[in-house]
Structures are given as structure tokens and as C-alpha cells.
Amino acid sequence: QKEVEQDPGPLSVPEGAIVSLNCTYSNSAFQYFMWYRQYSRKGPELLMYTYSSGNKEDGRFTAQVDKSSKYISLFIRDSQPSDSATYLCAIHMEYGNKLVFGAGTILRVKS
Amino acid sequence: NAGVTQTPKFQVLKTGQSMTLQCAQDMNHEYMSWYRQDPGMGLRLIHYSVGAGITDQGEVPNGYNVSRSTTEDFPLRLLSAAPSQTSVYFCASASGRGFGQPQHFGDGTRLSIL
Questions:
Q1: Which of A99, A100, A101, A105 to probe by mutation at the B interface, max B CB count within 10 Å?
Q2: Tell me: the pLDDT tens digits for A19-66?
Q3: Are B41 and A98 within 8 A, CB to CB?
Q4: What are phi and psi of B35, to 5 degrees?
Q5: For A53-73, what is each residue's pLDDT tens digit?
């Protein structure tokens, strides 16, 4: 079993839809949770970073962490064609210096 | 601010050839790392460094060597390229020793081994 599981998609939605991207993890020592966005032929760029259970908002993006269920989500409101990218969850152990990545979910927002 | 710079962007090698992928960062980050990205596999850690002179293995280190003589540079060497090393390689850096810190990525080197 992979330490971090992520549905690879692809996920195709119409412009303006609410998008939900999800990851599950197996190691309860994971404490820092990140979402990266990766456009085609580019490197991943940090989108959201949180270390506590609950919600964190940044504009149209909301990161949600449920440590009891070992489940993290990224919600995108009013999705735009420019949101079309691969979204990777990444998780860090509290005292480790290695990030563990999910496989990435390909998102396509149709105009 | 350039961030993390990787060269070359593309490379084609023949089996058995050697090559060095370059990575440089201008953020004075102590932590640097190399990943490979393959379809359906996500990003897998090859090697990482928590400072000049200190390196350690990641998840998939076989066939790769690294060294860290300066804070800014962290080259990745393929000693004898194999087709299984065809991949996209990303270098990343983070502040401190990387504990709980988000990593900043370069735009990758696309490597094909024939």
C-alpha cells in the first residue's frame, strides 16, 4: 500500500464548477500537508500549506485536513480553464525532511 | 529572483553514457533534493542534501550519484544510463533543513535514454 493515495483522474468539469480533489494517507506521523499545482512541462508550484486539522482558505482555494480519518482535500470554487493542471498532494512527517507525494490528479476545466 | 534553475531542459542519451544534471538555487536554502517523475508514479525522491557536504539517499537512489560542495549547487550524476532512467527529473530546495518546509521546484530536465 502506498503511503499516500490519490485518484489520478482525469477529472473533467465545466467552467464555474466546484472541484474536489482528495488524498488519503496511512502514516499518522504525517503532520504537514501541501498541495502543489503542476502545469504541463513545468515544475510543481506550491498552492496550499497547512499543518492542522480543519480548513484553510486562499481565494478560490480551500484546503481541508481531517487527521482522524487521514484524509485531505483541496476544493476549487468557480473553476476556470486556467486551473487545468495536475494537482499533487504532498505530506511531511513532523520530524522528517522528506516529502511524500501522491500520484497527482489531472484536472481539465472546459470553457 | 531565479529560484531553482535546472539545466539542460532536454537531453537524449545512449545506453551506457554518463551525464550530469545541473541544479542551482539562489535562495540560500540548506535543503536540496532530486526527484524523478514517471506517469502514474508521482514524484519519487532520489537523493537529498541538508547542507554542503551532507547527502543522503531517498526512495530510488540506484544508478545515481550526488555531491554538495556549495549551498547553491546540487548536481545529479548518471554513471551509466539505462532505459529505465528515462524520466523527468526535478530539483527542489527548501529553507532550513527541510523539516516541515514546503519545497520549491525547478522546471525539470526531460531525459530520454535510447
A1: A99
A2: 999 999 998 888 889 999 999 999 999 999 988 889 999 999 999 999
A3: no
A4: -125, 155
A5: 899 999 999 999 999 999 999
Residue of B8, B6, B20, B102 lying closest to B67 (CA atoms): B20
Give the CA distances from residue A71 to residues A21, B57, B83, B87, in Å, rounded to whole numbers and listed in that order. Answer: 11, 28, 36, 29
Chain A residue with CA closest to B38: the answer is A103
Comparing CB atoms, the residue among A42, A97, A104 nearest residue B42 is: A104
More confident residue, B103 or B75: B75
Contact at CB, B43 and A32, closer than 8 angstroms: no
In DSSP terms, B88 is beta-bridged to B37, B110
A68-95 residue pLDDT tens: 999 999 999 999 999 999 999 999 876 6
Contact with chain B for residue A34, Cβ under 8 A: yes
Q: Are strands A45-50 and A30-38 parallel, antiparallel or unpaired?
A: antiparallel
> Dihedral of the CA atoms B65, B88, B38, A43 (nearest 10)?
110
Neighbours of B106 (CB within 10 A): 24
Q: What distance in Å separates residue B94's CA from the closest CA in chain A? A: 10
* CA angle, B48 then B49 then B54, to 5°: 135
